[in-house]
User: What shape does this take?
Amino acid sequence: MKNAARVKKHAVTAVTYAGLILLSLFFLFPFLFMFFKSVMGDLESYGTYGVHFFPQEWHFENYLKIFDADFIRYFRNTMIVVVCNIVLIPLAASVCAYGFARGSFRGKNFWFTVVLGTVMLPGAVTQVPVYILFRMFNLTGTLAPLIIPGIFGGGALNIFLTRQFIRSLPREMDEAATIDGAGKFTIFARIILPLCKPILIYMVINTFMTSWRDFDSALVYIGNTSSSSEWHTLALGIYYKFMISGTNDVYPNLQMATGVVTVLPVAVLFLIFQRQLIDGVVMTGTKE
Assistant: This one.
């Protein structure tokens, strides 16, 4: 009986792993197709010699061709947005969350409910008013509309998660620091903020991935004029380069190579910090 149970357990484990492997291959198929297409020759990527999944000849030099002056400019603009947001969003969200978690002022719960209620607003509802507001100050066509919202915490969800995390920290630390003469700002900067490292890492990683792949905001606020083209981000610049211009001399292998290069940083970052991403949410939901 024990042998039969052991065999059954191993069989279930083997079937489970086989199913997970097949499921992983199913989700990885688009990425594998993109990579193999990126190292094909020009005519082969067009399907001149028939459609192949694996390249007949490997052309890794395709990756060198995409690093032209335009791509470097797109990368520079994207990094400006990313760096500004990963600094501003966690800091602003932490300051706001600290006020809601530790502050004592009239209408605190009401205003927190108002902030949290903004999660229910679809982005399309606020997009037009925000665009008009930026246009009034002549900020459209620049990177400013992609950076300035980060000053307000990057959304109510970040404020909510950080508030929940701060509420899990014992108030005795604040009281001890107050007895030692520390003010609210000192308590926040030297005690609360360092202890918020898990949720800050979560916000930094999530902000990086969101800012890196952001296309809609860049499309709306930057556009494609003679003056704004200098500020195209990667997502927007690649779109106009490959989709709008209609150039026939850009082969599919170069398009796929560009896709691999733009996806790779986000994929690597997620694989390295996926535990922090999960723990950041779990800790805010389990601690009180």
Summary: Residues 81 and 147 are 6 Å apart (CA to CA). The chain has a mean pLDDT of 85.
